[in-house]
C-alpha cells in the first residue's frame, strides 16, 4: 500500500494545482483567493472471531477554493483535482461570491502573519505494510484478548494505516504543504457472568508505527478492561467527587476549547463570552498548546489560514489568558488571530501530578468514571449531564464496577472544582492529560 504512494510526487502535484487555481481566480476577477488541497491513502482491516471481516484500501483527494470579491466570499470544492475540475470549482466559487452579501470580516489573514519558516516536524512515517501483514497484526491482537480467561467473544480488532499530503496556498504568495501519517490498532471484547455481558476496548495510535504498542499488549489490555466491568451495579445517588479517566478528562479540555473558540464567542453561544482574564481554574493549573512539537499528533507550522502557528497559553495559572481565534473570528471580535484556524494543536497541561491512588484516597467516597454516553453538554450555559459507567470508590479504594448512572454539573463549577490531576497521562491524541478529580458533582444511580 504505502510503496505505491509517492508522497513527494503528490506534494509537488498538489502545489502545482493550487497555484493554477490561484492564477485562474485572479484572471477571472477575484480580488483574493485561497486554496486547500489534499490527498490521503490508507489500508484498514477488521477481524472478528479469528476471521477477516473487512479489508478496505482507500484513496481520497479533494480541492477547495475560496474567493473574495471585495468583501463578498464564495467557496466551492471537488473531489476531482483534474485541470477541468479546478476551472469548474473556481468559476462556481466566483459565481457564489457575486451573489452573497457583504461581510466586512471576510478576507485572507494579514500577509505579514503568514508562516515564513516551514520546518520538518517529523510527522510523516509511512508504514510499508501489506494487506496480509495488517491482517496478521489484527488477528494477533484479537487472539491475545480472546485468550484471556473469562472473555466470551470478540466484537473485533482493527488496524488502520494511512498517510497523506495537504497543501494550502493563497494570493499573498503563501504556499505551505505538509506530509503526515497516522496508524492505529484497536480491540473490542465481550465478557459474561451471571449478571450479564460487558464490553470494553483499548487501542494504540501513533504517527510512527514503531511507537505503537505490540498487538498482544493491546489485546490483553482490552481483555482486562472488559473483565473488570463484570458484576456492575448502580451507584448511590448524591453529591460526591468524580474522578475522570484520562481519555474522558481530555474531553473536558475539549469542552473548554469549544467554549473559547472564536466561532462560539462571536455568535454569543458560549458560557465563556467576555470572560478573558477571569479565573476559571485553580491557580496551580495552566494549559498551553505546542503546535510545532516534533512528532506531535497535531503538529503544523501553519494554520488553516496560512498563519504561522505559535505556542499559546490558554489558561495561565488558572486565568483565561487567550481565546482560540482564526483570522475571521478575530475580526468579528475586534481582536487578532491566535494562529488557531482549524483548532488547537498539541495541548499540554502544566500542573502538579499525583498518582491515581492518591487521588482516590483524597476523594474517599465517589465514582471513577471510565465511560461516558450521550451528548448532554450545553455550550451556552455550560450545563453538563452525561450517562456514565465506571467504578465505585469507598474509603479511598475502588470497590466494584458501576453502570447505568448519570453525572451532572456545570462546566464552570467543574473547572473551578478541579482538585487534582493524575500522572497517568494519555498520550495517544493531541490532548495529553491524566485523570481529573472534580470535587463535587451530582451522581444519580439506583
Automatic annotation (TrEMBL):
Domain Metalloprotease TldD/E C-terminal stretches: 237-445
Record keywords: Hydrolase, Metalloprotease, Protease
InterPro entries from the UniProt entry: Metalloprtase-TldD/E_C, Metalloprtase-TldD/E_cen_dom, Metalloprtase-TldD/E_N, PmbA, TldD/PmbA_N, TldD/PmbA_sf
Domain Metalloprotease TldD/E N-terminal: 33-97
Chain segments annotated as transmembrane: none
Family, similarity comment: Belongs to the peptidase U62 family.
Protein name listed in UniProt: Metalloprotease PmbA
Organism placement in taxonomy: Bacteria, Pseudomonadati, Pseudomonadota, Gammaproteobacteria, Oceanospirillales
